Structure formats: structure tokens, C-alpha cells
Amino acid sequence: MSGSRRFEFAVRGEDAGQRLDTLVGQSDEVVSRTAAARLIDAGMVRVNGEPVSKKHVVRAGEQVSVEIPPPEGYDLEPEDIPLDIRFEDDDMIVLSKQAGLVVHPAQGNWTGTLVHALLSHARELGSLQGEDRPGIVHRLDKDTTGLMMVAKNDRSQAALSEAIKIRAIDRRYLALVHGYIAPDTGLIDAPLGRDPRDRKKMGVVESASARQSVTTFRVLERFMAGTHDDGYTLVECKLYTGRTHQIRVHMAYIDHAVVGDQTYGQRKPKADRGLTRQFLHAYRLELDHPITGERLAFVDSLPDDLARVLREIEPDSMNRTEAGEEVAAALEQARS
């Protein structure tokens, strides 16, 4: 079925003994137990290749397959959505994703995604991630902006995916966070998993199903506290793992939530400087070309809404760090 999403997993020992609808409902793709139960009742979930009841109690080692169908009559069609392309050849695209753009179709977002835009732009895209994710090798959250890679054929898609897996691609983010961070550098090594209190959120959890997650950061600039805030720190974050919402959850975990984050942040309009999306921007990307091996490096300046916030708090700056001067120069060069 065009646009459908299928995924499989083996039941881990720590998940044995749960009802099938509970386990499937904990996945990123399904999220809720109610949605999982509907899929099971419709025969879209199988255990060891066979349909079972939603009350089935899973055992370690069982193979679970789930198909998430699109709405009735849905077909994945190209859409004329503008793309900000920074590099393109026969093998790959590097683009700057705008805020509000979902990367690929999923429940609640069957149209208007980056995938629909790519289908309109390119005649061929990598197919290794499934028919609903042509060309995709990594994701950014809907309201996170910045640099992304897209594969135009299977060979480059496989190479880029492997490079991400072995951490051979340098991806860096700019984040403005609440509060004053004293050390110039830091490392956050805290496992992430589904928040047991809210399955739509991620959290630092100690369960056996949590996945190791490592983020490092460098302080670029600090800002004094004002009447409605406790100050800000501009940081550069680097991911050593690529978990869902990783930077946002890790920064909130150390009590420095990303400004404007409506899920993990303070949600105080004045302290968030009027932002209704997270101040998180994938500003730097450096990699070896997946086919030629040529070293490629890109820097993407801040979008207008985030740049506006930095201009507003500039009078409260406590000066940039050495790293901050380095990054500011790179951003200035990218703007020129």
C-alpha cells in the first residue's frame, strides 16, 4: 500500500509479559495503546507472522511486525513545496529545512512533508528506508531548522546511513537555553526512552529499554538575567547518538531547557522571548561525499525568528567565549 509504514522488532527480555497492545503502543510510530489496539484488531499487527489478539502476552524473542496504513485513498504524490538547497549532484542533496516542515509522512501528517517536496524536485531518490521515506537518511524535528542530507540513490543512501552509524559525519546544532551555564564545555551521558508518564514525550529513564544517549556542548555566549528570565546561554551541541528529541531532553534534564520548547521547556512567553518553537538549529554539517569521498562542509546561518531573539538579548551579553567568536565568524561568513 503506497504511503504505508511497516516496521518490525524482536521482543526483548525486559518487555516479556506485557500485552501486545501495550508494547506496540509504546513505539515511536504508534505512540498510544488505543491506536495499537485498532491496528491489531484490523490485522495490521502480527506475531511470528500470525495475527493475534491485542490481549496476547508477548514472550522474549517473538517477532512483531506492524503495518501502519495511510488514510483510505491516500497515495504518496509530489507536492510543490519550496526547498532551500545548498548542494546537489547526482548522488545527494544538502538542504536547509524550514520550521514547521515534517520530514516524512506519518499519522497526522500524510501530506505537506519534506518527502512530498523531494518527490517534486528529484526524479530519483534512495529507496532503502521504505516507500514512504525516499531519500531520507536522518531527521530533524518538525520545528527544528537547519541542514539535512538527502540521498538520490540507494548507493549513496547506504553510505550516508553507515557514516551516521559510525559517527563519521559532524553535525552541530545551535541552541539558546535558559539559565547560566558556568563551565565552558560539558558532556551529558543519560539514557533516553519513552516517558512513562506521557508516552508522547521522551525522557531520561533508567529502564532496561532505555537507549544510551550522549550529547556534548560548548558554551558560545552567556547573557545576564532580566526581569522575566533567569538569563540565557548560547551553546553549540554535538550528538554522539541520534535519539528522538535528544538535545531538547538532555538540556532540560540539566535544568537548562531550550528557549521556546513547547514540550520540554518552561512555556513562559516572556522568558521564551515570544518564541513558540524551540531555539534549535542544525547549523553545521561536515562529511565525506558518499561516492567521491570529497570533504564537504556547510554552515547555515540562523533563520530570522531565532536571529531576532539574539538581537534582543545582545545588550545583556556577558561576552562570547573563544568558541563563540569562532562560531560567530563562521555564521557571518555564511550570511555574506
Q: Portion of residues in helices?
A: 10-25%
Order of helices and strands: EHHEEEEEHEHEEEEEEHEEHEH
Low-confidence stretches: none
Strand % is: 25-35%
Assembly type? single chain
* Average pLDDT rating: 92
Straight-line N-to-C gap: 46 Å
Question: Structural class, please?
Answer: alpha+beta
Largest sheet: 10 strands, mixed
Radius of gyration: 21 Å
Apparent shape:
globular
Say how many strands there are.
16
Helix count equals 7
Q: Can you describe this structure?
A:
The strands form three sheets. Strands 5, 6, 7, 8, 9, 12, 13, 14, 15 and 16 form a ten-stranded mixed beta sheet that branches. Strands 1-4-2-3 form a four-stranded antiparallel beta sheet. A hairpin with a 2-residue loop joins strand 2 and strand 3. It is an alpha+beta fold and 336 residues long. The protein is globular and about 65 Å long. The protein is built from seven helices and 16 strands.
Detail the topology: elements first, then pairings.
Blueprint: E1 5-10, H1 20-25, H2 33-41, E2 45-47, E3 50-51, E4 63-68, E5 84-88, E6 92-97, H3 114-121, E7 145-151, H4 154-165, E8 170-178, E9 185-189, E10 192-195, E11 198-204, E12 214-223, E13 232-239, H5 246-253, E14 280-288, E15 295-299, H6 304-313, E16 317-320, H7 322-335
Parallel strand pairs: 7-14
Antiparallel strand pairs: 1-4, 2-3, 2-4, 5-6, 6-7, 8-13, 8-14, 9-12, 10-11, 12-13, 12-16, 14-15
